[in-house]
Specification:
The protein is an alpha+beta fold. The chain has a single domain, classed as CBS-domain (Roll). The chain is built from 7 helices and 7 strands; from the N terminus they run H-E-E-H-E-E-H-H-H-E-H-E-E-H. A 4-stranded mixed sheet has the order 2-3-4-5. Strand 3 and strand 4 form a beta hairpin.
Length: 172
Amino acid sequence: MAKAKSVKEVMIDVFEYPHVPYWFTIGQAIEIIRKSLMTGEKCYHPMAVLVFDEKYNLMGTVTVRDILKGLEPKLKVSTFADAEISYVDEDVMTSYETSLFDSESKKNVEKPVSEIMIPAKTFVAPGDSVVKAAIMMVHNNVSMLPVLEDKKKLVGLVKMVEVFDEIANSIL
């Protein structure tokens, strides 16, 4: 049986991933995400940006979903586990289409990303196994984990897609 790969072997270098300081606006984060999607050689889905403080310490992440929720406070997003139905009634959809993402959203685009970011609370080390990363991702319901060297220096990110690929390769 082959030795399990470490997080370091599948992680993305921190500087290869889109990032912003916490004072950037939601609009600036949108532009960075759009540029990354158009020019990126790697697939960064689910798309997110890292949020740093002035000393380049990781504060959290902002996903495309967080941005949409931050732009439109009336938009109620439930998880699949919370959803009682898997579709939206046409009358409800029509009322949403005429009222969501209007002038209020245009004001919200000026809010700082720090208001909508998800704080980074769970980390892995470069030497940790891909299996440990998978367990932590599933347990914490996240699709990527920051990789910290010596429990303090951010060196990269490990994403669910690489973890899944590595586990799939080892069992098939």
